[in-house]
Design a protein that fits this description.
Structural class: mainly alpha
Oligomer: single chain
Number of strands: 0
Number of helices: 7
Length: about 140
């Protein structure tokens, strides 16, 4: 509901943290910095997001980055990201902030592979093209 107390509080936090930029620009910058293996940039944008008070949103996006950009090049990246998400859910902020930061650094330093994300995309496109293909009897 526009104008509610929580909405006004979030808008105020977002303006304080991001100025004219939206929080989507900042989370995108974290993701792109991780993808480019730029640890310093990823940490700076991460710190800006934390100032906005959205640790759960950050954690969810880190899980996505672990799957999408690191993938099978380092399967432990998903464990790091999921543990950061768990810390947000179980411990909360500000205690979880260093856990999130650790995941950001790990993902930025990890080798990258988009092979799984690309393969899933191709499989989904094939299923969309031919949704009712028959399943072989031996399967």
């Amino acid at each position: 509901v526009r104008g509610s107390c929580s909405t006004r509080r979030f808008d105020k936090l977002r303006r304080r943290c991001f100025g004219v930029e939206s929080h989507y620009d900042c989370i995108s910058a974290i993701h792109k910095s991780i993808r480019a293996s730029d640890v310093d940039a990823a940490l700076i944008y991460f710190a800006r997001m934390l100032n906005g008070g959205e640790p759960l949103y950050i954690a969810r996006r880190l899980v996505r980055a672990a799957a999408e950009d690191v993938g099978m090049a380092d399967p432990n990246a998903m464990i790091q990201a999921m543990n950061a998400l768990l810390a947000v859910e179980k411990v909360g902020s500000p205690e979880c902030d260093v856990c999130l930061g650790q995941a950001v650094v790990y993902l930025a330093l990890a080798p990258k592979s988009r092979a799984v994300d690309d393969a899933v995309g191709r499989a989904r496109a094939l299923v969309k093209q031919t949704p009712n293909f028959s399943i072989p009897m031996h399967l």
